[in-house]
Specification:
Elements: E1 17-22, H1 26-34, E2 38-43, H2 48-53, E3 56-59, H3 72-81, E4 90-94, H4 97-100, H5 117-126, E5 134-136, E6 160-164, E7 173-176, E8 196-200, E9 205-214, E10 218-231, E11 234-243, H6 249-266, E12 269-278, E13 284-290, H7 297-306, H8 316-324, H9 337-346, E14 354-360, H10 369-373, E15 380-383, E16 397-404, H11 414-426
Parallel strand pairs: 1-2, 1-4, 2-3
Antiparallel strand pairs: 5-8, 6-7, 6-8, 9-10, 9-12, 10-11, 11-14, 12-13, 14-16, 15-16
Length: 429
């Protein structure tokens, strides 16, 4: 398999073209195509359904050896240097933020302060939310200065996490000893550049809230429940989402205020997500801000389509591109923040939540793609499908499943779902 195409073979198609880069761009690429955009994709997997929707594709990682031979930064720099009648419409949709943050471009112009605990603590305070006590995990910065005024003395049962704020998907989160313990943390992740911290663990349910902003106004698009699983030393590896889900009116008002305050303070624009925890007392805790398309965005988009909020040839990536790129083809019909705000206000959701589940391989080998696709039904489809030549590694993500059904009912169809998941895992041989 070819590592990456050369710069000369990746050309911008025109004013309706967008280049998407991320760890995996499949869902974002499908969203862009819905809006009539022509997509150049660049990610580390090159899944079948991603390549199928892209006009051109660049593989940033050779799956057979796991080494990045053509880095995200190299790709972005070369894309930005191309001569074309149109400025490059390049959008980072997941991962690589650190690699690209020093490059000046509208598609990844989020402020570095969005991951700073002091900023997050102040933002949470402004809207009446909580933020977990957080300390720097950099040994050179000891004694640990809290990122905010410490909470009252914690009971002996308080648990701590070690996490890298520049990472995503729960890949660099570990249980930790207290910050002042002799041993800094248990089961450490490999050391690398980033923003390591100790953070108090908050018991509760985790949610991802999706927003769209034009830098002045913002609309809350929906909220999904986040699902996690334990993988090796990682206790909170992302494993899926379901939603949109309903929260209480006071919680929704607080989340609206959170988005509005964030945008007022930072002029953040485009799609972004905010992760929160709701504890047993129904209090909201701010965890992190993701200034991009997120893992649950495709569920929100599917819901907005079935409710008629997004119309024919409209999508969330399309709406974000309209905000980021003024030179985008004006003939494209793309909704504004005001459009979506009005439509959501007039729309009532009568549909059950959607489910997205990451399926992890139980054995190594190659995937029988035909056997996997035969498992699709009217209510269950598979996505992020590797090619039949891609080596599958046990314990790693195999593909994802999106299902529709009343997951809120007292007797949801989990047994059938488990059967389908096992059958998908058995398609590796």
């Amino acid at each position: 398999m070819k590592n990456a195409r050369s710069r000369s073979t990746v050309t911008l198609i025109g004013a309706s073209a967008v280049t998407l880069i991320g760890a995996s761009v499949r869902a974002a690429a499908q969203s862009a195509a819905l809006a009539g955009l022509q997509v150049i994709g660049a990610d580390q997997f090159g899944d079948r359904d991603c390549r199928a929707v892209c006009k051109d594709f660049v593989l940033l990682r050779e799956p057979s050896d796991g080494h990045i031979t053509f880095t995200a930064r190299d790709f972005v720099a070369e894309t930005l240097s191309q001569s074309s009648p149109w400025p490059p419409h390049l959008l980072v949709v997941g991962g690589f933020a650190q690699d690209c943050q020093t490059l000046d471009h509208a598609g990844f112009a989020a402020s570095p302060e969005l991951i700073q605990p002091a900023f997050l603590a102040q933002l949470a305070s402004e809207v009446g939310m909580q933020f977990p006590t957080t300390f720097s995990a950099d040994r050179q910065s000891r004694p640990h200065a809290p990122a905010r005024t410490p909470d009252p003395p914690q009971p002996a049962s308080t648990r701590w996490l070690w996490k890298d704020l520049s990472s995503s998907g729960g890949l660099d989160v570990r249980w930790a000893n207290p910050p002042d313990a002799e041993i800094p943390f248990n089961n450490p992740a490999p050391r690398r550049s980033g923003h390591p911290v100790y953070q108090r663990w908050i018991a509760g349910k985790r949610f991802g809230v999706s927003y769209l902003s034009d830098g002045n106004t913002v609309v809350r698009l929906g909220t999904c429940r986040s699902l996690h699983t334990k993988k090796a030393a990682g206790p909170f590896v992302y494993s899926g989402s379901y939603g949109p889900v309903s929260l209480t009116a006071p919680q929704n008002r607080q989340l609206d205020q959170l988005g509005e305050t964030l945008v007022a303070n930072t002029q953040l624009s485009g799609l972004f997500g905010i992760d929160v925890i709701i504890d047993a007392q129904s209090k909201l805790w701010l965890l992190e801000i993701n200034p991009r398309w997120t893992a649950s965005s495709e569920l929100i988009e599917r819901d907005l389509i079935r409710r008629g909020v997004l119309r024919e040839r409209e999508s969330l990536i399309g709406a974000a591109c309209k905000i980021h790129f003024p030179t985008l083809d004006p003939r494209l019909s793309l909704p504004s923040v005001a459009d979506l705000n009005a439509r959501i206000g007039q729309s009532v959701c009568h549909h059950p939540p959607l489910l997205k589940q990451v399926i992890f391989a139980t054995r190594s080998g190659k995937l029988d793609c035909d056997a996997l696709l035969r498992l699709c039904t009217d209510s269950i489809t598979f996505h992020d499908i590797p090619s039949s030549e891609t080596p599958i590694v046990a314990g790693h993500p195999l593909c994802s499943l999106i299902g529709s059904g009343d997951w809120r009912s007292s007797c949801p169809p989990w047994p059938d779902l488990r059967t389908v998941v096992r059958a998908a895992q058995a398609a590796v041989c």
